[in-house]
Amino acid sequence: MVTLYKNINKSSWSKYVLCVVFSKSINEQINDWEVNLDKIVFDEQIKTGSFHGQFPVDDNRRIRMQESLKKGIIRPYYGAINARACAYTLKIMPPKCVIGVEHEVINEKTFFEDTVSILQKDASVINDDFKKGFVIEEQEYRTLQKWEYWNEKDEFTSRYIYKFFPTSIGLVTIVTATHTKDKIDISDYDNW
């Protein structure tokens, strides 16, 4: 299940306004898919010092990567700011939701479909301990509210596709209006 939360208490919007939480099952499926592709990149980086000429690793990093592999840790190098190589899309079509995952280095995509639950709650009752999920914070939401294609009543419908790009310094969030194909980057870069 995918759970979508809307924080109904504006005084706690600084914590989040919209929150997407994936179930343990979806988390595991996404993680398994990502690890398999990350291993391809990781193995080539250890073997050749890069992945198809991209994301070069020096000898010291290769030694650390080999030591990590002995411990069962697969962590390829995707550059200084890219903690992960995947982007995630969320298309909400109640009672279901489609989660797209794109490994941008290997250029492969997969999709997971699950039921969706939409809840309006105060931020204080939401468990922050989720492995995979995404948050739209106050400034990002205010940017959405100013967008000419935004309609709050449709925020959890197929009218919008949400795309999330995690980096080591912040989360890039792009929203697409499906009817017009217009996009807006709502990321709050000033607070990274």
Explained architecture:
This protein has 192 residues and is α+β, with helices and mostly antiparallel strands. The protein folds into two domains: 131 residues, no CATH class; 41 residues, no CATH class. The protein has three helices and nine strands. It has a nine-stranded mixed sheet. The radius of gyration is 18 Å and the shape is elongated. The model has no long low-confidence stretch (mean pLDDT 89).
Tell me roughly what share of residues is in helical segments: 10-25%
Largest beta-sheet characterization: 9 strands, mixed
Which stretches are low in confidence, meaning pLDDT under 50 for 5 or more residues running? none
**What is the overall shape?**
elongated
Query: Helix-strand pattern, N to C?
Result: EEHHEEEEHEEE
What is the residue-mean pLDDT, rounded to a whole number? Answer: 89
Number of strands: 9
User: Nearest-angstrom radius of gyration?
Assistant: 18 Å
Total count of helical runs of at least 4 residues = 3
The number of domains: 2
Counting copies of identical and different chains, the oligomeric state is single chain
Q: Per DSSP, what share of the residues sits in E-state strands of 2 or more residues? A: 25-35%
Distance from first to last alpha carbon: 30 Å
Sequence of strands across the biggest β-sheet: 6-2-1-5-4-3-7-8-9
